[in-house]
Design a protein that fits this description.
The complex is a heterodimer. By secondary structure, chain A is an alpha+beta fold. In chain A, about 45% of the residues lie in helices and about 20% in strands. Chain A has a 4-stranded antiparallel sheet. In chain B, helix 6 links the parallel strand 6 and strand 7. The termini of chain B are far apart. The chains are: A alpha+beta, B alpha/beta.
């Protein structure tokens, strides 16, 4: 079973088209293994990206050096999945 | 195990076997209205079950609703189960739905990507695609919402098997897609086609693969506005609406682009809620509110389809 310890979901709000294309560039950096939960649409619409632990620091540095604002929507994905699983099992019981 | 669909728990996520049991219970409890049609098999051999809601006639004008084509979007399959129960509960009670079902059929495919759904429960909660291996690649699966014969392989899908938006080796390469294509073509009398995804609160109509507006754009736009207004009336969930390409991004090989090009005018895609910051991991407490508000939008689209035969 695949687990997601340390994976975070970042919510990025691009300010303008320049930042939009910088975020789009992230899609092509396949070594980061990013999972776009909400794709790049237009400026001001949030982009949600699941970032594996091994890419977190690099991605955050990339965003910060480009002046792209982001927040951490999910601190640790596995914690949420464990809660979801627990809820399913207790409801089933 | 719930003894009937009244005691079934719509407020939680269910593994695939429980959803299949639910479908069989609903059919058994409503033999005069609900039947189950197996339109094909998934790659791993699971049945592609479609519930048919009909009060008679033959090959009546029909409405299609599917959920779960992207397997990790769990709130959609969960909402689909609630819709199924709502239809049998409201027929004979709600005059609008009763009028629709007295003249039209409704087809509902709840687990449109069963292999992927099973995989999210047992292997990888984040799985989105089908589960067919890709020759020559370590990566498995095709995005079933990029595999349709509408702008297939164009910009807005990926040619890389490891991508989440991989379009596949050719249009309709995925049995989960091909089975719907064949069913829709053989039925030949669908008037509305609604494919339900999550999340980001949008109601979208064609096209996604081209900027050329559909010829029915004005009507589809105003109906979408009515639908999201009805949706918001319950809990205030705010939706955006418009064509796929102008509202989100270019996406080729998409479901409703193909259905619209088949002549099914009322073709829509929903992106259901995440009103907070949960993304695909929407708490089960939000399943029923999501289904309830979405139902109001579905009723607006179905009622318009019924009142505007073509």
């Amino acid at each position: 079973k695949e687990t997601f310890e340390g994976h975070q979901v970042l919510r990025i709000v691009p300010k303008d088209d320049v930042q939009l294309s910088l975020i789009k560039d992230l899609e092509d950096m396949i070594e980061f293994e990013l999972d776009f939960w909400r794709g790049v649409t237009d400026a001001v619409t949030p982009v949600d990206i699941r970032v594996p632990f091994h890419s977190l620091q690099t991605v955050k540095i990339y965003l910060e050096t480009q002046g792209i604002e982001y927040s951490t929507m999910i601190e640790d994905l596995q914690t949420m999945l464990d809660d979801e699983q627990e809820e399913m099992e207790s409801a089933a019981r | 195990q719930p003894r009937n669909t009244d005691s079934y728990d719509y407020g939680r996520y269910h593994p695939i076997n429980e959803i299949y049991d639910f479908q069989d219970m609903l059919v058994a409890e409503n033999p005069n209205m609900v039947s189950k049609i197996v339109i094909g098999q998934s790659y791993e051999g699971r049945p592609l079950n479609v519930l048919k809601f009909s009060t008679g006639g033959t090959n009546r004008p029909a409405i299609w609703i599917d959920t779960g084509i992207h397997s990790r979007e769990w709130v959609t399959q969960a909402s689909g189960q609630w819709f199924a129960k709502k239809i049998v509960t409201d027929y004979g009670r709600d005059p609008t739905l009763t009028a629709i079902l007295n003249k039209m059929d409704i087809f509902l495919e709840i687990v449109t990507n069963p292999d992927g759904y099973y995989y999210t429960h047992n292997n990888n909660r984040m799985w989105r695609k089908t589960r067919k291996p890709n020759p020559g690649s370590n990566c498995v699966g095709v995005d079933p919402n990029r595999n349709w014969d509408a702008g297939f392989g164009g910009p807005g899908a990926s040619g890389r098997p490891c991508s989440e938006t991989y379009h596949g080796p050719r249009a309709n390469s995925e049995s989960e897609v091909k089975s719907i294509v064949d069913f829709v073509k053989s039925h030949g009398n669908f008037k509305a086609f609604i494919s339900i995804h999550s999340y980001s609160q949008m109601l979208l109509y064609p096209y996604g693969y081209t900027r050329t507006p559909v010829k029915d754009q004005a009507e589809l736009h105003s109906l979408a506005k009515k639908a999201i207004t009805d949706l918001a009336s319950l809990y205030g969930t705010r939706y955006r609406y418009g064509s796929i390409i102008s509202t989100i991004y270019q996406a080729s090989g998409g479901t409703i682009d193909w259905t619209y090009n088949q002549g099914i005018k009322y073709s829509y895609t929903f992106e259901l809620r995440d009103t907070g910051r949960y993304g695909f991991i929407l708490p089960p407490s939000q399943i029923i509110p999501t289904a309830q508000e979405t139902w109001l939008a579905l009723m607006a689209i179905m009622d318009h389809t019924y009142k505007n035969p073509y």
